[in-house]
Specification:
Layout: E1 3-7, E2 10-13, E3 18-25, E4 33-39, E5 46-51, E6 58-60, E7 68-73, E8 78-83, E9 92-99, H1 103-108, E10 115-116, E11 120-125
Parallel strand pairs: 2-11
Antiparallel strand pairs: 1-3, 3-8, 4-5, 4-9, 5-6, 7-8, 9-10, 9-11
Length: 126
């Protein structure tokens, strides 16, 4: 079982940047497809970004394309989410998740994820 711990959240002004990290332990995530999801108060959880095990494949929600970048360092067993040009509507709890499957499945069926982190709060002020 992989344990995931997110960090890097906080309060930032609109237009600012944050870098989230997701550190894995328990086993290597080099064969895992990893993703970031978020859930704002009163709303459903939504997909933000995903990355395949080799990092060659990535995908993003339309709302974050061009502003967010997902990456991974398998040597450090860590996944990152660089968030630039943040907007108030990006305010949410951000979760890291992963599983040994396809990127398109991560996007379409997040309920199949094997591991989830506890989440980190991101608040963007206007």
């Amino acid at each position: 079982q992989v344990q995931l711990v997110e960090s890097g959240g906080g309060l930032v002004q609109a237009g600012g940047s944050l870098r989230l990290s997701c550190a894995a332990s328990g086993r290597t995530i080099s064969s895992y497809t990893m993703g970031w999801f978020r859930q704002a108060t009163g709303l459903d959880r939504e997909f933000v970004a995903g990355i395949g095990w080799s990092a060659a494949d990535t995908d993003y929600a339309d709302s974050v394309k061009g502003r967010f970048t997902i990456s991974r360092d398998n040597a450090k067993n860590t996944v990152y989410l660089q968030m630039n040009s943040l907007k108030p509507e990006d305010t949410a709890v951000y979760y890291c998740a992963g599983f040994r499957g396809l990127l398109r499945t991560l996007i379409r069926a997040p309920g199949l994820m094997e591991s989830w982190g506890q989440g980190t709060q991101v608040t963007v002020s206007s």
